Amino acid sequence: MGTDGGTQSAAISTRLNWLRAGVLGANDGIISTAGLVVGVAGATTSRSAILAAGVAGLLAGALSMAAGEYVSVSSQRDSEKAALDLERRELAESPAEELEELTGLLVERGLSRAVAREAAEQLTERDALRAHARVELGINPDELANPWHAALASLVAFTVGALLPLLAIVLPGPSGRVPVTVGAVLLALTLCGVLSARLGGAGAARAVARNVTGGALAMAVTYAVGTWLGTATPS
């Protein structure tokens, strides 16, 4: 029963981590693409130029996020596999010392020495490597990080977020592009802030304020720079 409960808890934690990563990826897509297209809109009213810049930014950002996540998670997976290989060797070469180590770890978690010894012996008899991986290393051998899954999730999340400001800037007429985009982006950032706060168990007000302020500042700066370049640069 304890094992099932631990497995279920780990699965829930994994899903929450994926959800948080998805929300953050979408948030990055919203802010970076919004800043880009609003900046270009400040420099020109050409829909084709704004669309080209937005699509280029979307593709570059999504692929960059995917590549970065792939490299990061691949490194994590390599580290986890190396730790498991080392633990496997130690169990084969010095099982008595490893049993004592597992007992000590369980004692540190609040069990009495006698109960910890009995639990360590039972866990070792069932699956020594899994026991040490979970208790000592904090790794589930059956759920090592998958770099391809992480890369795909980042790519999709960024793309979904980036589509909102891209559509908001190209669909309205010239006079409504920037106001519509700013309104849609700030609303989306508010939602992302609320979701990230709830998934992380934190207060929503501060998360929303940070998110909205960062997005508004990014759009204001890029729009100002784009407007200046549009007037300062000869046609």
Structural class: mainly alpha
> What is the number of E strands?
0
Put simply, the count of helices is 7
* Helical amount: over 70%
Number of domains: 1
Q: Could you tell me the mean pLDDT?
A: 85
Low-pLDDT runs of 5+ residues are 1-7
Whole-angstrom Rg: 25 Å
Which features characterize this protein?
7 helices; 235 residues; 87% helix; mainly alpha; disordered N terminus; 0% strand
Explain the overall architecture.
By secondary structure, the chain is mainly alpha-helical. It is built from seven helices and no strands. It has helices at residues 2-43, 47-93, 95-108, 113-137, 147-170, 177-200, 204-232. Helix 2 (47-93) packs antiparallel against helix 5 (147-170), helix 5 packs antiparallel against helix 6 (177-200) and helix 6 runs antiparallel to helix 7 (204-232). Mean pLDDT is 85; it is low at 1-7.
